[in-house]
Structure formats: structure tokens, C-alpha cells
Amino acid sequence: MQPNFETMTNAQLIAYALAHREHIEPLRVLYQRRTPDAEAVWFNLPQTEEEAKQQFDQFKQIVAQKDNKRNNSGTLSE
């Protein structure tokens, strides 16, 4: 009998999926929980060179923050 994947935490699901690679259900539950657009940053098409520069600077800042967060957590993925 398989455990109730819906009640498991993401860490528990990942551990279960790694230990039972033949089971697809824990992966399905993990994928359903993903919300990539919740963390997405949308940029409008810049109308001027100054807007393009501002957006590029903002993009570099976001990337640097994510790199710092990843380096401080000691993991390769977020």
C-alpha cells in the first residue's frame, strides 16, 4: 500500500521518489505543487534606452540575489 502523497511534504516526496524510482505518483504530486509563475518577474518591452538599461540593471540584481541565496543555502537548486 502506497502512502498518501498529498499529505507528504516536498522533502518527504523527494526522498520517497528517490528511494522508489519506479513510482510515478510522487512525481506527479510534486509537479502539481509547482508554481513557477508565482516567482516570475515580468518585464515590459522597454520604450527607451534608459528603460532598457534600468531593466537590465534590475535583472542583474535579481540574478545576484538568487546566486547569493543559493550560495548561502549550500544547495544547487532552489
Write structural notes for this entry:
It holds the Pfam family DUF6887. The protein has 78 residues and is mainly α. The protein folds into two domains: 1-34, no CATH class; 39-78. Helix content is 56%, strand content 0%. Helix 1 runs antiparallel to helix 2 (25-33). It starts with 9 loop residues before the first helix and ends in a 5-residue tail after the last helix. The mean pLDDT is 89.
- Major beta sheet summary: none
User: What structural class should be given to the helix and strand makeup?
Assistant: mainly alpha
User: What level of helicity do the residues show?
Assistant: 55-70%
User: Would you identify the regions where 5 or more consecutive residues have pLDDT less than 50?
Assistant: none
Order of helices and strands: HHH
Mean pLDDT equals 89
Number of domains: 2
Strand proportion, as a percent range, falls in under 5%
Computed CA radius of gyration, to the nearest angstrom: 19 Å
**End-to-end span in angstroms?**
31 Å
Helix count?
Answer: 3
Number of strands: 0
The dominant shape is: elongated
Pfam family, one: DUF6887
